[in-house]
Structures are given as C-alpha cells and as structure tokens.
Design brief:
With 699 residues, this protein is an alpha/beta fold. It has four domains: 6-44 and 150-219, no CATH class; 49-144, Nucleic acid-binding proteins (OB fold (Dihydrolipoamide Acetyltransferase, E2P), Beta Barrel); 266-455, P-loop containing nucleotide triphosphate hydrolases (Rossmann fold), CATH 3.40.50; 466-622, P-loop containing nucleotide triphosphate hydrolases (Rossmann fold, 3-Layer(aba) Sandwich). Helices cover 40% and strands 18% of the residues. The chain is built from 25 helices and 22 strands. A seven-stranded mixed sheet has the order 6-7-4-3-2-5-8, with no helix packed on it. It is globular and about 95 Å long. The protein starts with 18 loop residues before the first helix and ends in a 9-residue tail after the last helix. Magnesium ion binds at residues 309-310, 404, 562.
Length: 699
C-alpha cells in the first residue's frame, strides 16, 4: 500500500515550471518532486569568497571583483571586446567574442564589477573568457554567496537557474515536512557508519554549508554522498534478491538421482578420458543438489579459463536427460557453439537422443528440421547461439538452460532468458558459466540473484603459462622464436590490439601485421581472423587452425572467448598495455590448454608508464584469474573488469562502483538482514531508487 506522498506530485506544481519546462525536465527523467530531489549536482562552484586578483593562477575557477581600467575592441584575429580590471593586487583581462554595444558601454573605466569564471593564460597575461559578471556599486560590495553553488546536469533549453529554483522549492517542502523523506536506513546503521540522515544528506548535497569542502564533494568522500550511494546500492541488491526469491518460488522439474540414473551418471564419469578434479566434483554435487529440488536452480559457475566448466555443464545436462527433459546450451559465438556441439555429441553418443545444433546461419529446410526435432522431443540436447531463444523455437520439454561465457550477456538478457522454456508454470533450471573471475564484492551485486559455485582448481598436469614482458623493438627475436616454434610442429597466436574500440582500425592493424609476418616468415602458414569477417569465414579459419592447416593465427581480440586449440602454446600480444588485466588473462588462456609448456609474450610499446609496468608485472607473476581480477578492480575499476556491457546494464543515479566499491561487502550483510528486520523498507527503497523501471523484478 502506498501512502500519498507530496513528493509524488508532478514538477509542474512548482512555481516557474510551465508545461514546456516540465517537458524538458522529463527528458532528464525528472517527473516528480522526488525525482528532482534525487537529481544531484554534477559539480559545484565556489562563490563563497572573493579572490585577490594577484593570487590567481590558470585553472582556478573563482569569483573576483575590481574596477575597469580600460575597455577596447580588438580587431586583431577574431574581433573581441577586451576589458582590463584590477583590484589593487593585480589585473586580469576579460575577453568577449560576442558582445553588444550596450555591454561595451556599461563597462566604462572606473566601473566596479564582479566576475566569475575560469582563469586562463591569454596573450597578455591572465584572462577570463566570457565570465559571468555583474556591475556593482563598489568593489567592496558583498557579492559572495553563503553556500557553494550546485551545477546540475541539464538538457537542451533548460538553464541552471530554472533547475536550481525548482530544486530549492522541493527542498523547502521537505524542510517543512521532514517525514516526506522517510529514512529507511535503520538508526544503528547510520550511527555505525557515521552517515547523516537522508534529509540532511539531501540538503547537504544540493546546498552544502561551510562545513563541507568542495574537494570532498567532488571526490565523493563526503558522508552525505556515501550515504546515498550506500542506499542506492542497497536498493539494487535488495531488488536482485527479491528476483531471486521470486524465481525460487517457481516450480521446476526435479532431477532426482535414483538407482537407474546413478548407473547412467557413473557410466558417464567413467567414460571420460580424464578424472574430474576435486573442484569439478564439488560443483557437480552442488548442481545435483539444486536440481533435485522442485524449484529452479539458478547457479553461476565461475572458473578460470581451462578449468573444465564444459564437462560440469554436460553432467547437469545428463541429469536433465535421464529425468526425461531437454537441455538448451547457449554460447556467445558460433565458434564456441560448434565446439560445444562436437563435445556434447561425443559425450552423448551412447544415448538414445539426438544432439541438435542451431545458429542464425541455419536457414530453410535444415532449420525447419531442427525446430521440428526440438518441438517433438527427438532432440534431447540443443546447442546454439542466441538464435535458440527466438520466438520460432519451441521446446518439447525444456528442463535445463546452460549459458556459457555469461560475461558476454548482460543482466537483462540473462533474466529474459528465464522466461523462455516456461511451460504451465514450470520453469527450467538455469546454469550459467563464466571464465571472467569477478571479484567477490562485485559478484555479490551483479549476481545476487544467483548462487555461485567456483571451480578453483585446474586439471592436473597443466603447467602455468610462462609470461614475459618485452619491448616491441625485440620483434626480430620474437619472429625467430616463432620460426623455431613452428619448426617443432606447434602453433602460434599473434594478437593485435588497439586502444580505440574501433573494430575497423583493429582489423586494419591485424591485416597489416598478417602481411608483414607472412613476408618475414616464408615457411610459416599465416592466416588472419578478425571481427569484421563473416561468422562462416571466421569459423572456417578457426577450423583450419584447429586442424593444423595454419601455423600462425593473427587475430584481433575476437579469439578471446572459449576456443580450445591445445597445440597452440605460444601467444604474442601486441600493445598489451592497452587492455585490462582481466581481458589479457582471458586472451592468454587460449594457450596452456595442452600438457606442454606454453608461453605468452607481452610485447609493449616503449616507454611504459609506471602503472602499465606494474600491471603487466601482475600478469607476468600470476596465473590466477581471481588475483588478477582483484588487481584490475583496484587499478582500473569495475567497468573495465566486467566489461562495459555488463556495468552499463546497471544504471546508478549516484553510486559509482569504482568509487564506492568499499561499500559492497557491508551492503550484502545489511541487505540480507533487511529481509528479517526491516521488510517494510524494501518496497519503498526499491521504488525510490529503481523507480517504475523496477527492472529486475518481474522476471
Ligand atoms: P573452460 O572452463 O575454460 O570452459 P573447458 O571446459 O573448455 O574449459 O576445458 C578445457 C580442456 O580441459 C578441455 O579440453 C577439457 O576436455 C579438459 N578437461 C576438463 N576437465 C578435465 C580434467 N578433470 N582433467 C583433464 N582435462 C580436463
Ligand atoms: Mg568454456
């Protein structure tokens, strides 16, 4: 039940907000007074004191007063009005490129004015370009403001003044009726973290008093901001937990392991060409326990590249099959889907079911045939790309969805997939796998709707990849090394990276590199793979590389995901300083898949900055994806660790995962306690921060 709240009123009720302005505010997502109140300033301007002109330095944005010494229009270069002012401690020029005659007239020598702008170097000393200025009666007149001035995010046609006035009115309302801003964070927590109340935090951020420094506001360390970030992250966390609880309440098929099933699973494990690692066995047990329940499993399996996640998912598939259900396995690329198709086909060849394969490439009758075997249940396992989840695909009895390389899909996609395969109120189990080791704190927010299993052990015999950091001027040595490596019948990856996200440029660079290497290595079979090639072309190249018809594969970062070529044990990564550590680790994981020694050469462009040197050192010294991800988080922030695609999905108004990462651990603990201690606060918090979008809730 919602109680009517004055803050739910539309912005249009405020004085000075007509229909047009209300429309513009709406473009910023500001519809109600509550929205306005949570629309925080981007930054602040300091008009609380007047600076002596003699103390100014370029880069300062300040308030000054002085008297006009002279004013003139300079025809030189671009026509401009120059006005020199001085306050006895020094002088500064004001420069206007656009000016009116009346402006010119008003700035007569001797006139006192106050100005506010950034100070820059001009051709004749310091200057302010187009300052905000006011003619005053006397240079000593009080022109300061008592508080820092907020600067809000704007949209076309909206001015700071309009928004400032609107916010001010909304704040006044809250001042008179403080209960409008209900504080859902319990007192003891506020006390423990020394957070201000909600009302006071809001007040501080819109209209900071003299106790708050502009620096603390800008760098996010002011408790008022921390508190709001905390509350927002908490609201997201709670929302995801609710999603989880709701989904957990759905019915799912139970895959119990009875005597008959036991024979099948034991046979499956015995027929594998290797012994499962302890970690694989543990995760399998966790999956088995989940699937025995009558509620959908929602489990994320995290495991470093090469840790053997595929076979674990195959075991889950086996459980579904023996219980008489279908399994859908979704991979982010055709290449990977195809690799899974081959693995699953081999593993399930002894079963009386068909393993089918569906990608966007499949057309016409071939496609119809696959849709048919899915619908009538002839195919127990279907492997494919996201083509699997198109409307035309109908399952006979889908019991399990497996999603590989989860980090390629966003939160929303993942949630949407849950709906697919739902039949008569029964939802399939879901197993998602990722090789991106997400630091625990982030995982807790990003995946709080999932249970997490970690495969923290590599199959035995794997030797760590020997990583070296070398400057690009040792290219000739590297080329020699490739020659002798290929001479030993082994294969090589050469990865080109570019700083721009531009795929075109990346591909051009790779093309050029492939040409150069082809010339430098006449006895080596060189091929090229990049993101602008058609999937079929890419697959053909990759297939040829797998079949060892190619010795050296020049690639852009497209090879990042999941492809397995055990004979390729040497990788050169050009300009590694441009990539995030986690991404480099993923790339490097393409080698070291066999039992031989494997090498990764990080060939950087000198000179290397200290941070870059340190970062590459982390990679050289560690083969542990989790360690690397933690470092990456520390050095570059979560956007880089998880990929923009994922962080981009989580839109925060105030919180900044990089800045506020320190809050996450506490949020999990406090959030969990909310369900028993303050359940009444959950809905309003979700409303306040996720609003009508309540994006995670309905799936
Ligand atoms: P990832 O976790 O990166 O998806 P894969 O499932 O592709 O790893 O496994 C990598 C390789 O390791 C595959 O060739 C797979 O057959 C092999 N493998 C998996 N588990 C084991 C194990 N317990 N012992 C030996 N090799 C294994
Ligand atoms: Mg994999």
């Amino acid at each position: 039940m919602k109680t009517p709240n004055a803050l739910n009123q539309p912005v249009g009720i405020l004085t000075g907000i007509g229909a047009q302005t209300a429309n513009r505010l709406q473009k910023l997502g500001l519809c109600t007074l509550q929205d306005l109140i949570f629309h925080l300033p981007l930054r602040y301007e300091d008009r609380t004191r007047v600076y002596p002109i003699g103390s100014l330095r370029p880069g300062m944005t300040v308030l000054i007063t002085g008297k006009v010494e002279f004013v003139d229009v300079l025809p030189r270069g671009r026509k401009s009005l120059i006005c020199r002012i001085s306050d006895g401690t020094g002088f500064i020029n004001l420069r206007f490129f656009h000016f009116s005659a009346s402006q010119h007239n008003a700035l007569k020598p001797g006139t006192a004015i106050s100005c506010f702008a950034e100070v820059r170097y001009g051709f004749a000393g310091l200057e302010m370009v187009h300052p905000e200025y006011k003619v005053i009666a006397h240079p000593d007149e009080c022109v300061t403001e008592s508080r820092l001035t907020p600067v809000y995010p704007l949209t076309e046609g909206l001015s700071q003044n309009v928004i400032r006035k609107a916010v001010k009115q909304a704040l006044e309302l809250c001042k008179h009726e403080p209960e409008l801003l209900t504080d859902w964070i319990p007192e003891p927590i506020l006390r423990q973290y020394r957070y201000p109340t909600l009302a006071s935090a809001i007040q501080t951020l819109h209209a900071p008093d003299e106790s708050v420094s502009i620096e603390a506001l800008q760098n996010g360390s002011v408790p008022a901001l921390k508190r709001l970030a905390f509350e927002e992250l908490l609201a997201h966390y709670l929302s995801l937990r609710i999603t989880r609880n709701k989904t957990k309440a759905w019915q799912a098929p139970s895959f119990t392991v009875g005597a008959a099933e036991k024979t099948a699973t034991e046979h499956f494990i015995r027929s594998l060409p290797f012994k499962l690692t302890g970690a694989q066995q543990r995760v399998i047990a966790e999956i088995e326990a989940d699937c025995a329940l009558l509620h959908p499993m929602m489990r994320l399996v995290q495991g470093d590249v090469g840790s053997g996640k595929t076979v674990v998912s195959a075991y889950a598939a086996l459980l579904a099959l023996t219980a008489g259900y279908q399994v859908a396995v979704m991979a982010p690329t055709e290449l990977l889907a195809e690799q899974h198709f081959r693995n699953f086909s081999a593993w399930f060849s002894g079963f009386e079911t068909q393993v089918a394969y569906l990608t966007g490439q499949l057309k016409g009758n071939a496609r119809k045939a696959v849709l048919q075997v899915l619908e009538d249940g002839t195919a127990g396992i279907i492997i494919g790309t996201h083509a699997l989840f198109q409307d035309s695909v109908n399952f006979h009895r889908l019991g399990l969805i497996i999603i590989d390389e989860q980090h390629r899909f966003g939160v929303h996609q993942r949630l949407a997939l849950r709906e697919k395969g739902q039949q008569e109120g029964i939802r399939p189990h879901q197993l998602v796998m990722t090789a991106t080791p997400i630091p625990r704190t982030l995982a807790m927010l990003q995946y709080s709707d999932l249970d997490i299993s970690i495969i923290d052990e590599l199959p035995p015999g794997r030797k760590p990849i020997v990583t070296s950091v070398i400057p690009a001027d040792r290219r000739a040595d590297v080329i020699n090394r490739i020659n002798s490596w290929v001479g030993k019948k082994k294969q090589v990856y050469w990865v080109c990276t570019l700083i721009e996200e531009s795929e075109v440029l990346q591909c051009e660079a790779a093309e050029k590199t492939a040409e150069v290497l082809t010339q430098a290595l006449p006895d080596v079979r060189v091929a090229l793979i990049h993101g602008r090639m058609k999937s079929a072309e890419k697959d053909a190249v990759m297939q040829a590389f797998k079949n060892h018809q190619i010795d050296l594969l020049v690639a852009t970062t497209v090879i990042e995901v999941g492809v397995d070529v055990p004979n390729a044990g040497l990788m050169i990564i050009e300009n590694p300083e441009r990539l995030g550590l986690s991404q480099l680790h993923q790339l490097r994981g393409r080698v070291g898949r066999g039992n031989d020694d494997s090498y990764c050469l990080l060939m950087y462009q000198a000179p290397l900055s200290d941070t870059a040197r340190y970062r590459l050192g982390v990679l050289r010294d560690s083969n542990d994806g989790f360690v690397i991800a933690e470092k990456d988080l520390e050095l570059r922030g979560p956007g880089e660790v998880m990929g923009t695609r994922q962080t981009g999905q989580m839109q925060f108004k105030i919180a900044d995962l990089a800045r506020d990462a320190d809050l996450l651990a506490a949020i999990q603990q406090i959030g969990d306690a909310f369900f028993t201690r303050s359940p009444e606060a959950i809905e309003p918090l979700r409303d306040r921060w996720l609003g009508a979008s309540t994006e995670y809730s309905e799936v």
